[in-house]
Amino acid sequence: MQRLEQLRTWLADAQPGRDFELEPASADASFRRYFRARFADGGPTRIVMDAPPAQEDVRPWLHVAELFRSAGAHVPEVLAQDLERGFLLLSDLGSTTYLAALQRSAGEAPDCPRAAHLYADALGALAAIQCASRPGVLPVYDRSLLLREMQLFPDWYVARHKGISLSEAEAAMLDETFEKILAVNLAEPQVFVHRDFHSRNLMLLEPTAGLGANPGVIDFQDAVYGPISYDLVSLFKDAYIRWDEEFILDMLIRYWEAAKKLGLPVRAEFADFHRDFEWMGVQRHIKVLGIFARLYHRDGKDGYLADMPLVMDYLRRACKRWRDLGPLLKLLDRLEPEDVQIGYTF
């Protein structure tokens, strides 16, 4: 409550003479909180970010926001800031995420015009960000970071969540598999990577609201310089919504063809590009299972448990497709027998 009162006082100083009410806007997997400020004078609503300095640093958010804005992406405008206390006053991109908009398409064919249109907009924003890429500006998505992320899987998903101890042979297999995954990931061309470019972090901007072109892009503070396929995995192998592989392939081909025309460093052959995409997905889904388990067991956030089966299904499908991942598939069978896996189709 003390923190909230500090935020109220700061906002009152930042918007003098304006009465307002605060309501929760959203929360993410970190310590950041977001509130929507509604003003008595009827002015536009604003978003207030509360990032406790002991746990969060708003400077990376500000840095990436400027990079992405300069690239042409639609990110929130910074209206006021207090770096010492971790408060930001931002423009409001609305309350409709891509996830909410796409879920309204449930039951329709996966290539429904609305979904295809929204994803095309998202790919346009992503390509703009990637075209602005240059080294030395963002942290590098290097071997140590990619490996540290995957290590969350044995530590949090296997040991803590499933309560299973790996044998020496299984642990050695996992280490060897991680090295194979890293070899593919690190051989990819590098660009700016949002790192969570998915349906919960893309906002639907209605034209009547005067907010600009879709999508609004949020939650980008962990951006890095890394593999070009990573954000495509976040977008199309989304932990929160699933589309048929035919639809995903169609969108990937469209991106790949457009990327070549824009001069982005994609592979010359689509088969090679798709292999990179698949193996990047393996790295991400191994990581995500560990993160979701950690959010539950360490942070008491159980909302992500319902999303684990879809992530596991993505991982299992990739392991079935690539022979080198066969040993990992055997481990997945022991951790999570296939007959309890859940499939999702739209």
From TrEMBL:
Residues 22-255 form the Aminoglycoside phosphotransferase domain. It comes from the Bacteria. InterPro entries: Aminoglycoside_PTrfase, Kinase-like_dom_sf. Keywords: ATP-binding, Nucleotide-binding. This is Aminoglycoside phosphotransferase family protein.
